[in-house]
Write a structure and sequence with these properties.
The chain is an alpha/beta fold and 425 residues long. The protein has 12 helices and 21 strands. The protein folds into 2 domains: 160 residues, Lyase, Ornithine Decarboxylase, Chain A, domain 1 (Beta Barrel); 176 residues, TIM Barrel. The structure holds ligand LLP. The site of ligand LLP has 22 residues, from helix 10 and helix 11.
């Protein structure tokens, strides 16, 4: 019998049934839209946003969903409709927010270490809430663009709190050795220098210590350092209105027992005690926690073959569709959409791309599968489609959003003509 996947919207309504998302069978979706196919649950996305909003309801706050995790227009629109703001890191992401929910422009914060003048101009014109500025040079550029366009820019310095968070080295960002932010010890001087500039408004201070951080403790530690900085600045005459705590709260990519509500409560509590003396606005930028478990990648088994001692299950999805296992040695649970009788056996689940890094799982116990069967890769909603590519000239997957009994295509499958269109001979 199939297991319901705790805290994930994918489940078997009865033993022997295929997996469902909401009231829709993944088999039916695969038949209708083909594979590889990303499937998302609108209900879970709303629930996760609401968890954060409820946890911080006692104070002025704004949940700025990190667009980079999954930037599908339909998902941005759904989140904006529930009051979310957005954390963007490029002009392109801003264009997405403006296309999906122009009314949310005033709830956008712009992060990133390498903003161009054109991107800054676009954001000034759109009237975003604030720029999270990552260097003194960027602040000078922001001041100059704001003066040229006669639009005052609100900014927060992104400080580097020098807090260690236990996560994969590629996605850890809060140490002094990382490229991100400004040394927290340099920040007071920069705020004071800039306080005189009439085109800049010192709106807040921001941090982001990394991603997929499972413990609440480093978030509390970062907030303590930041709130000390805010107090110091207030004493020295710079009053900041907001603290942006960044994103980074991790999920459990392994099967059972993940309690999302408890995790958010724990996270909010760690922050609240560190921010007890701060009465301004709190911004947070969760990406993964909102969208990862709402999404799955459905793939079809093409071949099952043995090489030496190993069995390979070759699917029609590949590293270009979901690169997390190849890039971060990330674990994604994999399950057959419809279970066959028989003992699970260790297999490698791989894609058709021509390199050995193209795998989803190695030596993973998987129930028996045959060519034509469907597999689901769970927790693929964040940094899945968003990091997909056309490597091997593979058109990108289609995406479907499920709401109760209704499934709608939110991104059609790419065609080869889409891929060839920008090229000339
Ligand atoms: N805010 C800033 C400034 C960020 O750089 C990030 C993520 C977030 C918010 C959202 O973090 P989240 O809540 O999603 O952890 N591709 C990697 C993750 C990269 C995260 C980059 N920054 C992965 O697939 O694990």
């Amino acid at each position: 019998m199939g297991q319901p996947f705790f805290s994930r919207p994918f489940y078997r309504p009865r033993p022997g049934a295929p997996l469902y998302c909401g009231k829709v069978s993944l088999e039916a979706l695969a038949r209708r839209y083909g594979t590889p196919l990303y499937v998302y649950s609108a209900d879970q996305i709303r629930e996760r946003l609401a968890l954060f909003q409820a946890a911080f309801a006692g104070r002025e706050h704004l949940v700025c969903y990190a667009v980079k995790a999954n930037s599908a227009l339909a998902i941005l629109k759904l989140l904006a409709g529930r009051g979310a703001g957005f954390d963007i890191v490029s002009g392109g992401e801003l264009e997405r927010v403006l296309a999906a929910a122009p009314e949310a422009a005033g709830r956008v914060v712009f992060s990133g270490v390498g903003k161009t003048a054109a991107e800054i101009d676009l954001a000034l014109e759109a009237g975003i809430l604030a720029f999270n500025v990552e260097s003194e040079a960027e602040l000078h550029l922001l001041a100059e663009r704001a003066r040229k366009r006669k639009r005052r820019a609100r900014f927060a310095l992104r400080v580097n709190p020098d807090v260690f968070a236990d996560t994969h080295p590629y996605i850890s960002t809060g140490l002094r050795e990382h490229k991100f932010g400004i040394d927290i010890r340099q920040a007071p001087k920069i705020y004071k220098n800039m306080a005189r500039n009439r085109w800049l408004e010192a709106y807040g201070v921001s941090v982001h210590i990394g991603s997929q951080i499972r413990s609440a403790e480093p978030f509390g530690a970062a907030m303590e350092r930041v709130s000390r900085l805010v107090e110091q600045l207030a004493r020295e005459g710079v009053a900041l209105h907001a603290i942006d705590a960044g994103g980074g709260l991790g999920i459990d990519y392994h099967a059972a027992g993940f309690d999302a509500a408890a995790k958010v409560t724990e996270y909010a509590a760690a922050m609240a005690s560190a921010l007890a003396g701060f009465h301004g606005s709190l911004l947070i930028e969760p990406g993964r926690f909102v969208i990862a478990q709402a999404g799955a990648l459905v793939a079809r088994v093409l071949y099952v073959k043995r090489n030496g001692k190993k069995t390979f299950v070759i699917t029609d999805a590949a590293m270009n569709d979901l690169i997390r296992p190849a890039l971060y040695q990330a674990h994604h649970e994999i399950a057959p959409v419809r279970l066959r009788a028989g003992k699970p056996r260790p297999v490698d689940v791989v894609g058709p791309v021509c390199e050995s890094g193209d795998f989803f799982a190695r030596d993973r116990n998987l129930a028996p599968v045959q060519p034509g069967d469907l597999l689901v890769l769970l927790d693929a909603g964040a940094y899945g489609m968003a990091q997909s590519s056309n490597y091997n000239t593979r058109p990108r997957a289609a995406e479907v959003l499920v709401e109760g009994a209704r499934a709608r295509i939110i991104r059609r499958r790419e065609t080869i003509s889409d891929l060839l269109a920008p090229e000339s001979i």
